[in-house]
Amino acid sequence: MSKRKILILVAIVVVLAAVIVGSVMHSRSNVTKVTTTKISRQDLVSVVSGTGQIKPKTYVNVGATAFGRITHLYVKEGDHVAAGQVLATLESVQPQATVAAQNATISSQKTDVNSYLAAEKTAEANVTQAVADLQQKRFDIERYEKLYDQKLVSKQDYDSRKAAYDVSAATLQQRQAAVAQSKAQTASALGHVDQAVASQRANFDALDKTISRAPFNGLVTNVPVREGETMVTGIQNAQGSTLMTLADMSVITAEVKVDETDVVNVKLNQQVEVTVDALPGKSFKGHVTEVGDQALLRTTGIATSQSTTGTEEAKDFKVVVTLDEDAPALRPGLSATAKITTARVPNALTLPIQALVQRDQALEDTYMKNSGKLPSSNGPSAAKGKSKTIQGVYVLTAQKNDLRVHFVPVTTGITGATEIEVTSGLNSGDEVITGRFKILRTLHSGTRVKRDNSIESATAAESES
């Protein structure tokens, strides 16, 4: 074979190789790189989060119940107090003097009662004497009546005895009236004593109001006054009317705000995990005890019903979580985050949330029949007017030597942090497209793809989603 023929043959081989390589490179350039994952089963928990602060279930502002200067403050902020414990005292010179004066009045009136009782006994003794004397006079007159009838005594003696009897009868009536008078005086004196005792109870109450006591076991959270300051009454929450704030820490709550899109899933008695910024690494178990019905403006916290201007800003709802355990380390006002478990499905079939797309099923079927393209007579603009999108995912399938995707409608259940429950449409082990996000936006059924689950590609897909 001549040298010229060999050169021609080599050139033909090089050209054919170039054509083949170019065809392969062109074919590979039309393959879309995607990230994938296989559907699996796992326990799925749906959680709603809210932020707020720790609050006691019960707290009171211990206000002034008397006007006067503070003489002693027995507690300070952070102290634990018991029910009935003395918290503070006000000056009590006038109430004490009033009580002492009334005690003297009561003693004097009790002495008067004793005097009236003695007079009553004397009057009763006089009545007894008058009864005996009248009886004696009755016997005399009866005897003289018989003697007078027998003409044994003169009429003068008889009249004298009769007069003596009448005097004794009148004396008895007089002394009986004196007894009634003495009893009335005694009753009046006793009434005065009762009245004075009742007045004294009011005096003791006024004196007791100069002493402030704890209404329940609790924690002193605020003491806005100092010894020597003057307290006033009748003006709630005004300066000088509140001695201190007392919180009942036996029942602790976390009052948090939950977004309006999530509050519909929050129900009473759902389990909650509460974390506090001041106690990193520690969590507290609780349960939902109150779900607010009033929307709150996110910027101001004012209820929408109290807002005077209309606004379309985001809104929150108040949710109260009661802790199930004692937490002595907690203090009112600490910032808290509540994670509310709204649903739990064991062994659920799950897929990443970013894999979900919205597509027109009829259009996807057309793409599938034409290897990811639309016939020129049925472009995207022609289908736009009659488009009806449904929720689904792209599933990876092998066709001969190619990997292609096809759209599969799915129905979903509860949503976790990054996963969502699949209730129908997929089976465990199915491989679905999860990214990248830009690719998913334009991906269609029948498109040739290539797996690219490298760390760089997966990270880029997560950041875009």
Automatic annotation (TrEMBL):
Signal peptide limits: none
GO CC list: cell envelope
Record bears the keyword Coiled coil: yes
Pfam families (UniProt xref): Beta-barrel_YknX, BSH_RND, HH_MFP_RND, RND-MFP_C
Gene3D superfamilies membership: 2.40.30.170, 2.40.420.20, 2.40.50.100, Helix hairpin bin (1.10.287.470)
Protein name stated in the entry: Efflux transporter, RND family, MFP subunit
Localization: Cell envelope
InterPro entries: Beta-barrel_YknX, MdtA-like_BSH, MdtA-like_C, MdtA-like_HH, UPF0194_transport
Record has Glycosyltransferase as a keyword: no
YknX-like beta-barrel domain segment(s): 254-340
Residue stretches making up the Multidrug resistance protein MdtA-like barrel-sandwich hybrid domain: 60-237
Location of the Multidrug resistance protein MdtA-like alpha-helical hairpin domain: 121-185
Multidrug resistance protein MdtA-like C-terminal permuted SH3 domain residues: 389-437
Organism for this UniProt entry: Terriglobus saanensis (strain ATCC BAA-1853 / DSM 23119 / SP1PR4)
Main localization, broad class: other
